[in-house]
Write a structure and sequence with these properties.
This protein is mainly α. The chain has one domain. The chain is 70% helix and 0% strand. The chain is built from seven helices and no strands. It is globular. The protein starts with a helix and ends in a 10-residue tail after the last helix.
């Protein structure tokens, strides 16, 4: 019989990052609905998307993932963005740890990170009071 602990030990960075990529699609839907300048959002999402895609490509082991994230900013082509890349690497590390410590988050990721925002492509109309 497979226990919750067994599923945690089998959790791989690639699996978590693939699910986080799906969650970014929902975030993209929310971003398009905003009426303010979204340039910073787009830059942050682009950095995170590249980082997650690189994890999937490199497929680091669970044991080496924290070290992989620590050294990821050194591999980036844009040294002027190293602070932003480091921040996103820390964010992914926090989500990785959350997937291990919070069962509901892990289940949400395993379900493909479903979100109503990903389905609702049209911005909602504001109603007058």
């Amino acid at each position: 019989m497979k226990t919750a602990k067994d599923s945690l030990t089998g959790l791989r960075p690639t699996d978590v990052c693939q699910a986080l990529l799906a969650a970014l699609e929902a975030a993209e839907g929310r971003r398009r609905k905003r009426k303010r300048d979204q340039t910073p959002d787009a830059i942050g999402l682009s950095i995170k998307r590249s980082l997650l895609a690189r994890v999937v490509q490199d497929d680091p082991s669970a044991e080496s993932f924290e070290e992989w994230l620590l050294h990821y900013p050194e591999k980036c082509d844009t040294p002027e963005w190293s602070g932003a890349v480091s921040a996103m690497a820390r964010s992914v590390l926090e989500e990785w740890r959350l997937a291990h410590s919070m069962g509901e988050f892990r289940v949400w990721l395993e379900q493909g990170a479903p979100s109503d925002d990903a389905k609702d492509e049209k911005p909602r109309e504001r109603r007058s009071p």
